[in-house]
Automatic annotation (TrEMBL):
Name of protein: Peptidyl-prolyl cis-trans isomerase
Top-rank EC class of the record's enzyme: isomerase
Swiss-Prot/TrEMBL keywords: Isomerase, Rotamase
EC number(s) reported in the record: 5.2.1.8
Listed GO MF terms: cyclosporin A binding; peptidyl-prolyl cis-trans isomerase activity
Species whose genome carries this gene: Emiliania huxleyi (Coccolithophore)
């Protein structure tokens, strides 16, 4: 359940769209698209966008600041999934582009 992450340009710069390409067992399962509300939460939106692109390089823990290859550590079918912990992989880690 490893997402590939990236961004796509949107017409309005304060509402960028990002995506996770999801694989399960190495097979493509689909894409999750997310629209970020940078006009409301600019720092949070920019952090999430940069973690999708990986453009900020390596974090303090020595791991890439990127969602690519991270897993969903909790899935409740028909309800939700949690993921994005690219430092520990279990929901207790994570890192921000802001340090």
């Amino acid at each position: 359940r490893a997402p590939l992450a990236g961004t796509r340009r949107m017409p309005h710069p304060l509402s960028p769209e990002v995506f996770f390409d999801i694989t399960i067992g190495g097979l493509r399962a689909g894409r999750i698209r997310m629209k970020l509300h940078a006009h409301t939460v600019p720092k949070t939106a920019e952090n999430f966008r940069c973690l999708c692109t990986g453009e900020k390089g390596i974090g303090r823990e020595g791991k890439p600041l990127h969602f690519k290859g991270s897993t969903f550590h909790r899935v409740i079918p028909g309800f939700m999934c949690q993921g994005g912990d690219f430092t520990k992989g279990n929901g207790t880690g994570g890192e921000s582009i802001y340090g």
